[in-house]
């Protein structure tokens, strides 16, 4: 059974201010909770139905588990379905990575669903770290975590002063723009930073100053633009074809 204090905390962690104050975030849903088992993240508690706890008893024994009814979990979670498990997890200390290898940088991507999908795409293309401007969506927002579909444990996101980070980078910065060299013709370096802007503002001038190569996805139809997560996937696929 979930106590009143536990329920209060679970609900509070839906807010960014409370996540920061407690140093905790929520992982909701059966699949995402099970993804924690193979991640380096520190789990404080798991709240789940008796059926879920019984089915996964062997792998969940390392955690403090609290049995709860589906009704209790529905009240504690923002999920409408697949809400048989919720975990409270410590926010890891993430240091800005050295600018090397293949990286993603995000400038002003404020939608948590887009950020979560980009984290999932990064995981697919074996990119372990994303750097993002400080006004990007919170990587520990429940919507972000859900959209990663489990990739949150394998890809870290650093919120930082993005222009300053790009300024010190010694590898190419590929900026996505409506006008630039086609990704079908670009000769990508094996190391580089893929810089993506928001759908509404694109890459902003402060970050654009440090772009070494402007690239674009050629359009063949009448759509005005692409979703930023979809565009990230298309560009990474073209890059990985050259440097798999």
Descriptive overview:
The protein has helices at residues 4-12, 16-22, 30-35, 50-55, 57-60, 70-76, 112-124, 142-148, 162-168, 205-208, 228-242, and strands spanning 24-28, 43-48, 65-67, 85-90, 102-107, 129-133, 156-160, 173-182, 192-197, 213-216. Helix content is 35%, strand content 23%. It is of the alpha/beta class and 244 residues long.
SSE topology sketch:
Layout lengths: L3 H9 L3 H7 L1 E5 L1 H6 L7 E6 L1 H6 L1 H4 L4 E3 L2 H7 L8 E6 L11 E6 L4 H13 L4 E5 L8 H7 L7 E5 L1 H7 L4 E10 L9 E6 L7 H4 L4 E4 L11 H15 L2
Parallel strand pairs: 2-3, 5-6, 5-9, 6-7, 8-9, 8-10
Antiparallel strand pairs: 1-4, 2-4
Helix pairs in contact: 7-8, 7-11
| Estimated structural class | alpha/beta
The number of helical elements comes to 11
Q: Helix content range of the residues, please?
A: 25-40%
- What is the gyration radius calculated from CA atoms? 20 Å
> What is the molecular shape?
elongated
- How much beta, percentage-wise? 15-25%
Please give the order of strands in the largest beta sheet.
7-6-5-9-8-10
Distance between the termini: 49 Å
Average of pLDDT: 93
Low-pLDDT runs of 5+ residues are: none
Number of strands: 10
| Main beta-sheet strand count, sense and barrel state | 6 strands, parallel
Order of helices and strands: HHEHEHHEHEEHEHEHEEHEH
């Amino acid at each position: 059974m979930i106590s009143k204090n536990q329920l209060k905390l679970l609900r509070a962690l839906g807010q960014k201010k409370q996540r920061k104050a407690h140093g905790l975030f929520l992982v909701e849903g059966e699949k995402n909770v099970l993804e924690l088992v193979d991640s380096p993240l520190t789990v404080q508690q798991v709240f789940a139905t008796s059926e879920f706890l019984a089915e996964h008893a062997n792998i969940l024994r390392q955690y403090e588990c609290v049995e709860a009814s589906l009704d209790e979990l529905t009240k504690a979670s923002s999920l409408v379905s697949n809400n048989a498990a919720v975990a409270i997890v410590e926010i890891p200390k993430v240091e800005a990575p050295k600018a090397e290898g293949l990286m993603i940088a995000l400038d002003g991507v404020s939608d948590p669903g887009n950020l979560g999908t980009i984290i999932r795409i990064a995981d697919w293309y074996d990119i372990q770290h994303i750097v993002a401007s400080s006004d990007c969506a919170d990587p520990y927002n429940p919507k972000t975590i859900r959209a990663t579909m489990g990739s949150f444990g394998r890809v870290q996101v650093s919120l930082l002063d993005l222009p300053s980070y790009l300024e010190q980078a010694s590898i190419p910065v590929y900026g996505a723009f409506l006008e630039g060299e086609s990704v079908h013709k670009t000769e990508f370096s094996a190391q580089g930073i893929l810089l993506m802007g928001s759908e509404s503002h694109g890459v902003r001038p402060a970050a654009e100053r440090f772009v070494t190569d402007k690239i674009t996805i050629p359009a063949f139809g009448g759509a005005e633009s692409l979703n930023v997560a979809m565009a990230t996937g298309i560009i990474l696929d073209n890059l990985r074809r050259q440097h798999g």
